[in-house]
Amino acid sequence: MMAHSGYIPISYWQLSLSVILVLITGVISALLGLGLIKSLLWGTLRAFIQLTLIGFILTYIFKLNTLAVIIPLVLLQCYIASREATRRIDKAPHNPLLASFFSLTASTFIVGLIVVVVIIGPDPWYKAQVLIPIFGMIMGNSMNAIALSLDRLYSEVHAHVEQVEQMLAFGASPWESIVEYLRKAVGAGMMPTINGLMIVGIVSLPGMMTGQILAGMAPDLAVRYQFVVMVMIAAATAIGCLTIVGLSYKRMFNSDGGLVDSMHKN
Amino acid sequence: MSNLLEFRDLRRYFEGEQGRYVMESGSLEAGGIMVIKGPSGAGKSTLLKTLARLLLPQGGQVYLQGRDWMGFSSPEWRRLVQYVPQKPIVFSGSLEDNLQIPFNLKMLQNKAVFDRSQAVGLLNRMDVPGNLLGQSAATLSGGEAARMALVRAMLIDPQILLLDEPTAYLDGENRSRVMQAISEWAGMGHSRGVIMISHNDEDLQNLSKVSVLNITVRG
Question: Domains in chain B, please, with CATH?
């Protein structure tokens, strides 16, 4: 084993030893009859192939380091993430994919550019090695927050159709009639991030910080990055949740400011 | 006599039912009470909610004192033509908080103020003691909640009350008291009226200016 400037690389031979770990999982699954072996093997294979591919792609893109490639890649990731965020939303009166894509892209770019350009400041400002991982982290968290917000929004309103109609009967605007549920939806989306801020460093050592320490960075420097990442994720989820809720609520109402018919079906 | 409210061929399909719909015409004179009758599934509640513009109609015209309903903004219309569902909607907070909700909306802000003594008067008229005002609304009985909802609708000062079985949660004595209060409310001023769904003919005894709209199952 040879040390490369602080970090210890894993050779292909060492990599193949990780099969031991797959075997352990497989044995547990077989002993308990969990019926997971097929999924486990398929999942392991997929993870290996996906990671290998992205390893090559990233290496290539880092070398190219041109906006013409970085921007389309980030947009593609945003699209895939927004599809994932809306996949299990089944109570929406309209397909929320477009709103989700917009919210995710907006939150990723606004916060990502602040972090990369203003705080980290690489040269050039769009250095792929910095921009892509930062944008990716924002996107992953924003995606989960948007999914939680959307799910909460529709379940709250579906559960309170009569209350919403009563508010409308009082002369409330659509916004006024559901603002209580909009707040809950934004809160639900942000809750995991807020909880994360509370326990970081005590209960969990985040993956990014751990990675930098493994790569040889001094822990006191790694925590600075981690702090930036945590507040960046909080800002991105706030923007993402607010945008998705703001874009989605109007679609629950018809042109006359009443609930659309599909919201009446319980 | 000119009509307070008139609707012509007002049509609305029900959700979830194959091709069933309600299509009715009717008119209500000032001070009058129109009672909607018909078998269940004929669309009585749908008709009320359509009149309240809580459901979009598929056709027809509605006029309030000769003015086309689409000339009103929907919040303005819903306030003037006030729908009270059969199951009273109780929000969190005290009874008084519940009565004040409509006055905290943009629509009524600076236009009307919550009048506590008027609220107490109306509650007393329906045999709900005024000292319940501070009590958590969640602790109200079904009958008290129904009367609170009716008072809340009256306080908004609409022209028309659309009442979906207003006495459903009430017992004998309170039924007639509430019906009297509704009738008195309709008779005050020259531009008020009530459209209500009722299955109980006893409720309509001793009331003046009552008309009946019988509706049938269509579709």
Answer: 3-214 (3.40.50.300)
